[in-house]
Amino acid sequence: MTSDDLLARHRAVLPSWMLLYYADPIEVVSGEGRRVTDAQGRTYLDFFGGVLTNMIGYDIPEIREAVQRQLATGIVHTSTLYLIRQQVELAEKIARLSGIPDARVFFTNSGTEANEAALLMATNFRRSHQVLAVRNSYHGRSYATMGITGNRGWSASQLNPLQVAWLHSGERLRGLLSRLPEADRIDAAVEDLREVLATQTSGDVACLLAEPIQGVGGFVHGPDGLFAAWKKVLDEHGILLVSDEVQTGWGRTGEHFWGYQAHGVTPDLLTFAKGIGNGFALAGVVGRAEVMESVPAISFSTFGGNPVSTAAGNAVLDYLLDHDLQANAARTGAILVDGLRAAVGGLDCVAEVRGKGLMLGVEFVRPGTAEPDAALAAGVFEACRAGGLLVGKGGLHGNVLRMGPPLTLTEDEAREGLAILVEAIRSCAAEAVAP
Ligand SMILES: Cc1ncc(COP(=O)(O)O)c(C=O)c1O
User: Fold this and answer.
1) Terminal-to-terminal C-alpha distance of the chain
2) Which one, of 325, 330, 246, lies nearest residue 60 by Cα?
3) Which SUPFAM superfamilies has this protein been placed in (predicted)?
């Protein structure tokens, strides 16, 4: 079986709106550490980790063995109608780590479902289906989460069970507030929030649901402290704050365990997914007991928090904490961001090298302008692959290269990936300006 055959079969049987990366798509057949091997036997250093999901890396013995131990019991699934020891243990750990007092945890299979559950709780608690969301966000693929996704390219339906009002993100490069100096953007974002509440809602809004760093949006964010400034206004109205930590959680940003901690505020609800299962389907919401308890009927997830995925989740979390991967993210992320800034930050076509920890972006523009250059980003993306490095793409305009390697990345691997990135960016930038 060649990869080409598989591509033809894929196209014949799977819908075309399922995005496939690369002109010549890759079938990953094995992996170890931070490296994967494709069907042609080519090995790549992986700086995208299945979209920030293979958080610990590939074939990690502690996780494999924990899953094997669970499989050996003969129990893959029981349903949540029965007690699940792995689930209770993981919930205890997540409740403790969440920073939310007296927290409860509900497990789901995906980030979409986690956000959907958070919306269920917030709208019931507040008896309102009005929700605030942020421009350029991504929250999932159900109707409600598409409805609060502020990116037309990722929101496939206008059907929406919620009434949504939109806030400016306060990011540095794009959007109205980017015209203001950094020091003025929090005040402007707060003014925007007050105006939106007064002009587009009836005041009794359920929640604001926001990503501390927008993932699909290209790893952009408002100034640190923005969530706290927003929350002061939200508190005047009893509106809840929900932090979507699907990409920013578990220490990835290096400076904090959760993205919300950069803002000096604790959310009422927090949603998590991706990295916690290291590839096993595991996600959920953790939050204040009174909000979590506001669901007025049985809400049942057949697979949510099943024994295998929560066995993986416990092993992932133990590994993460035992090895202080947050500190590793800070250390190896600094090698990447400093190295990229020094080597390519000054190029005319690079608008910004940004990021925290192991969540890094490079935004490309037409030289000397702020006009997004998606073609250049795509060229660099392919050149990285040719050089043996997998990265991601993103941003509202598709002009951002995104890096979210496993948090176990070594310093040598960071330097190896950096060299490939720099070479790819320099060579594509030179081609772009050549006559
Ligand atoms: C911030 C954020 N929220 C929610 C989701 C949806 O998660 P899932 O694809 O697991 O449903 C994603 C997925 O990329 C995400 O990045």
Assistant:
1) 42
2) 325
3) PLP-dependent transferases
Q: What is the pLDDT of residue 347?
A: 97
- Residue nearest to ligand 1 atom 7, measured at CA: 111
CB-based pocket (< 6 A), ligand 1: 51, 110-112, 115, 138-140, 211, 215-216, 244, 246-247, 273, 283
Q: How far apart are CA 398 and CA 394, in angstroms?
A: 5
Q: What is the widest separation between alpha-carbon atoms in the chain? A: 68
Atom of ligand 1 nearest to the CA of 216: 16
Site to substitute for ligand 1 among 18, 134, 220, 247, most atoms within 8 A of C-beta: 247
Distance CA 168, CA 178 (A): 10
* Ligand 1 atom closest to Cα of residue 141: 11
Q: How far is the CA of 359 from the centre of ligand 1 (A)?
A: 15
- Say what the pTM is: 0.97
CA dist 243 and 257 (Å) reads 13
Tell me how far the alpha carbon of residue 109 lies from the centroid of ligand 1, in angstroms: 11
State the DSSP code for 215.
T
pLDDT per residue over 112-139, tens digit each?
Answer: 999 999 999 999 999 999 999 999 999 9
Percent of the chain surpassing pLDDT 70: 99
Is the dihedral angle over the CA atoms 309, 297, 97, 328 positive or is it negative? positive
Question: Tens of pLDDT along 154-198?
Answer: 999 999 999 999 999 999 999 999 999 999 999 999 999 999 999
Q: What is the DSSP letter of 87?
A: H
Choose among 316, 322, 378: nearest CA to 22. Answer: 378
Instruction: Confirm if 287 and 269 have CB atoms less than 8 A apart.
Output: yes
Of residues 392, 398, 391, the one with CA closest to residue 420 = 391
Distance (angstroms) between ligand 1 centre and the Cα of 427 equals: 33
- Give the pLDDT confidence of 357-386 residue by residue, as tens digits: 999 999 999 998 999 999 999 999 999 999
Give how far Cα 240 sits from Cα of 3, 96, 208, 264, 291, Å. 48, 20, 6, 16, 9
pLDDT of residue 368: 87
Specify whether the CB–CB gap between 134 and 207 falls below 8 A: no
Q: How many helices (H) and strands (E) does the chain have?
A: 13, 15
Q: Is 251 left (phi over 0), alpha (psi -120 to 50) or beta?
A: left
Written as one letter, the residue type at 113 is E
